[in-house]
Each structure stands twice: as C-alpha cells, then as structure tokens.
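Example 9 (inverse folding). The structure is encoded as follows.
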C-alpha cells in the first residue's frame, strides 16, 4: 500500500494551500515502523493538528488501520515550513 499517497490525498482535502503540501516517508530504525512527515504552511499545519491535537489523532487512527493489516506501525509527524 502507498501510505504516502493515501496520507497526501487525505490531507489535501483539509488544507488551503494545496501546492505547499508535501508528505515524505523517512527511514526508521525499526523495520516494522513507517515514519511519515507531513509538511505544509504554518496555518495549514495548525488546521491539520486541530485543537488539542484532535485532528492529528484522527488522521493517525485512520492511517493506522491499514498499517495494522500489514503488521506495521505508522508514525505520522506534522511539520510546518519555516515562514
């Protein structure tokens, strides 16, 4: 499964500046863990994280379902571009 594309399609619907959205898969020390970074503008990252992290937790839960089917753990981190 292409976790990067799935997460990017999901996040694209939630951000305003769609051209600044980027999702990258980074290497992990644990072979069963996939690390995904979501990069966007500062205001869009705030939107993706939500109040008290509610939106970020929902995105993580949604994405973790497919990871569990493949016996993998997904670690999703949100970063804003320096502006």
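The amino acid assigned to each position is listed next.
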């Amino acid at each position: 499964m292409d976790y990067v594309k799935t997460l990017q399609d999901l996040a694209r619907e939630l951000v305003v500046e769609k051209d600044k959205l980027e999702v990258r898969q980074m290497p992990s020390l644990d072979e069963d863990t996939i690390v995904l970074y979501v990069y966007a503008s500062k205001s869009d990252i705030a939107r993706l994280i939500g109040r008290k992290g509610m939106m970020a937790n929902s995105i993580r839960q949604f994405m973790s379902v497919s990871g569990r089917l493949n016996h993998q753990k997904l670690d999703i981190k949100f970063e804003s571009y320096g502006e």
